[in-house]
């Protein structure tokens, strides 16, 4: 019963929306609800990445620390975003810090469980990977635009 | 014999600076005194040629409220000889003004639709008249969203005003910066990210974008991806100007002159030109 309502709420998240009920049920076996307080770290660079997160509400800052420049916010993410692709690829380590900016509700997907399901059911694997690819494509476009520093005054 | 009383568009009209305000580093706003001429009517998106005497002219968009023609404002970023000469002026100084010139944002056509205003950096200045208009005629539009991206939190233009607009319940106002330290509690990331999160109906939205060309192209593609048809996306073009009246050919952009046919263009009419090198 609880699992069923969890599946229904996961299905609302943009990364999952449109997936078949069967696939959403299958995925929901790896999911738990999570929350993150303001100022709390969800994960820190270098730690083992063992969960992927779908953000339901709130805001998190993805930060990189540089000795000389201090902490730099690479991007903020919020409701509707997904976070934590490092969970899917070796060496399964976080590449930056994620810190709560506003109190956040998340779905946490267990990395090992998800990887096993992606392997076990290739139809599910394809549906999930396509979404992942779309997300990565958008993020790549954004990263390009950000790197171009378009608002800088031309010399 | 009759003498035409229409002002010569090539003759700068001297106007006194009534108020000067520093907005951000290198960006300032001047209000010009237009009381003696009975106001300065213009359409949102139009620009003036500003002439700090002896230093050449620059095209600068009008950034004030089109419903308040008694207040004429320009917001300027000092980048070179002319804009730096303007920056050195202050209250009581005189600047030469020719205009208003150019095409306007399609605010009438957008009525009855969702309005998405997307600005990057100093590109908020030419769109501020649209925001003023939409807020005054709020009932004429569906949803209204202002999505603004700039470089750092210190570069946010019209900050107090944006905070006031954000406080309204009938507009969505989102700001993001490209880079920030951890003390910034707002959004970090590019303005395209705000587009996919904003609440508007792509099937009925009108989008108006102003900012660096690359930023406008990325935004137009994001809007297209969401289903906004290209003939409902409008952008502005910048080219070096001289006469401002379509005579000298200095501002040629493909088959058109930016000073006369632009600076506001419908995206589908210029998208190919945007990709041609050296147009
Ligand atoms: C229709 C139109 C509306 C405009 N509206 C505004 C406005 O509201 N506010 C405003 O500040 N500017 C605006 N501009 C741009 C402004 O006209 C130029 O920045 C100005 O003419 C530059 O003149 P300058 O002599 O100061 O600099 P220049 O000596 O001509 O240029 C100095 C340096 O600045 C660079 N530069 C020139 N123009 C720009 C630019 N637009 N952006 C970034 N770098 C530039 C040049 O490449 C050069 O390296 C507008 C331009 C057009 C065509
Ligand atoms: S500036 Fe002379 S034609 Fe446009």
Automatic annotation (TrEMBL), chain A:
<feature type="domain" description="Cyclic nucleotide-binding">
    <location>
        <begin position="15"/>
        <end position="84"/>
    </location>
</feature>
<dbReference type="InterPro" id="IPR014710">
    <property type="entry name" value="RmlC-like_jellyroll"/>
</dbReference>
<dbReference type="InterPro" id="IPR000595">
    <property type="entry name" value="cNMP-bd_dom"/>
</dbReference>
<protein>
    <submittedName>
        <fullName>Cyclic nucleotide-binding domain-containing protein</fullName>
    </submittedName>
</protein>
<dbReference type="InterPro" id="IPR018490">
    <property type="entry name" value="cNMP-bd_dom_sf"/>
</dbReference>
<dbReference type="Pfam" id="PF00027">
    <property type="entry name" value="cNMP_binding"/>
</dbReference>
TrEMBL record, chain B:
<protein>
    <submittedName>
        <fullName>Ni/Fe hydrogenase subunit gamma</fullName>
    </submittedName>
</protein>
<dbReference type="Pfam" id="PF00175">
    <property type="entry name" value="NAD_binding_1"/>
</dbReference>
<feature type="binding site">
    <location>
        <position position="251"/>
    </location>
    <ligand>
        <name>[2Fe-2S] cluster</name>
    </ligand>
</feature>
<keyword id="KW-0411">Iron-sulfur</keyword>
<dbReference type="GO" id="GO:0046872">
    <property type="term" value="F:metal ion binding"/>
</dbReference>
<dbReference type="InterPro" id="IPR019480">
    <property type="entry name" value="Dihydroorotate_DH_Fe-S-bd"/>
</dbReference>
<dbReference type="InterPro" id="IPR001709">
    <property type="entry name" value="Flavoprot_Pyr_Nucl_cyt_Rdtase"/>
</dbReference>
<keyword id="KW-0479">Metal-binding</keyword>
<dbReference type="InterPro" id="IPR017927">
    <property type="entry name" value="FAD-bd_FR_type"/>
</dbReference>
<dbReference type="InterPro" id="IPR012165">
    <property type="entry name" value="Cyt_c3_hydrogenase_gsu"/>
</dbReference>
<feature type="binding site">
    <location>
        <position position="248"/>
    </location>
    <ligand>
        <name>[2Fe-2S] cluster</name>
    </ligand>
</feature>
<keyword id="KW-0001">2Fe-2S</keyword>
<dbReference type="InterPro" id="IPR039261">
    <property type="entry name" value="FNR_nucleotide-bd"/>
</dbReference>
<feature type="binding site">
    <location>
        <position position="259"/>
    </location>
    <ligand>
        <name>[2Fe-2S] cluster</name>
    </ligand>
</feature>
<dbReference type="InterPro" id="IPR017938">
    <property type="entry name" value="Riboflavin_synthase-like_b-brl"/>
</dbReference>
<dbReference type="InterPro" id="IPR001433">
    <property type="entry name" value="OxRdtase_FAD/NAD-bd"/>
</dbReference>
<keyword id="KW-0408">Iron</keyword>
<dbReference type="GO" id="GO:0051537">
    <property type="term" value="F:2 iron, 2 sulfur cluster binding"/>
</dbReference>
<feature type="domain" description="FAD-binding FR-type">
    <location>
        <begin position="10"/>
        <end position="107"/>
    </location>
</feature>
<dbReference type="InterPro" id="IPR050353">
    <property type="entry name" value="PyrK_electron_transfer"/>
</dbReference>
<dbReference type="GO" id="GO:0006221">
    <property type="term" value="P:pyrimidine nucleotide biosynthetic process"/>
</dbReference>
<dbReference type="GO" id="GO:0016491">
    <property type="term" value="F:oxidoreductase activity"/>
</dbReference>
